[in-house]
Design a protein that fits this description.
Layout: H1 3-10, H2 30-42, E1 50-54, H3 60-67, E2 72-77, H4 80-92, E3 98-101, E4 111-116, H5 129-140, E5 141-149, H6 153-162, E6 166-178, E7 188-199
Parallel strand pairs: 1-2, 1-4, 2-3, 4-5
Antiparallel strand pairs: 5-7, 6-7
Helix pairs in contact: 1-2, 2-3
Length: 202
């Protein structure tokens, strides 16, 4: 499948209906998600692999992994509303994905590859959330694909190195966040983000 075809399919994944501000449920744009899935497929990290989508939201990475030939996929999110949307979409489109309502810290499912777009930490309750996601990725997976604010990458590189991991690939994107909540000041704001491919030691 071509990347553009994947992007078109991922554009159909529904948005959260009742986003929770403290969870920073900003869905990864289909253009970015498709590029990351395509990259992971080229690295051999999806085909016939077991995948965990941490903080999956309505499941854009899970859906992408299913389309790209993953053997088994688990989508994990603490919000039961987005999990219900993800389940319904997967069932309607005959995608074999298992979605679970669970806090990231409680995930124990081992896998080959983790995908995640953790909270950027704009809300006080989410400060250091990206670190918790990465730590969990190291516990359960061989390879991690993760999106972060570019300005935080130097710190995260030190953390990843201290955990015994290796960053094998980086790619920068511009991540648009559209107006969703009353405290948003702009109709759309753009953030510089970087995707990391991390190899762990498990």
């Amino acid at each position: 499948m071509k990347k553009k075809e994947l992007e078109i399919l991922l554009q159909k994944v529904p948005l959260p209906k009742k986003p929770i501000p403290t969870l920073e449920q900003y869905m990864t744009p289909a253009t970015i998600a498709a590029d990351i899935i395509f990259t992971a497929h080229q690295f051999g990290d999806i085909q016939d692999k077991k995948i965990v989508d941490l903080g999956c939201g309505t499941g854009i990475f899970s859906v992408g992994a299913a389309i790209a030939g993953a053997k088994k996929i688990f989508g994990i999110d603490v919000d039961e509303n987005v999990i219900q949307i993800a389940r319904e979409y997967a069932e309607e489109n005959n995608l074999e994905i298992e979605f679970r309502v669970k806090n990231v810290k409680d995930v124990e499912t081992k896998c080959d590859t983790v995908f995640m777009n953790p909270p950027f930490g704009a809300q006080k309750s989410n400060q250091k959330a990206d670190r918790k996601f990465i730590e969990k990725g190291f516990e359960i997976s061989h390879v991690i694909y993760s999106l972060h604010l570019t300005k935080t990458i130097p710190f995260l590189e030190k953390m990843i190195f201290s955990l015994g991991g290796t960053i094998t690939y980086k790619k920068k994107y511009v991540f648009p966040i559209r107006w969703m909540f009353e405290f948003h000041e702009k109709q759309i704001a753009y953030y510089d983000v970087t995707m990391l491919r991390i190899e762990t030691k498990i």
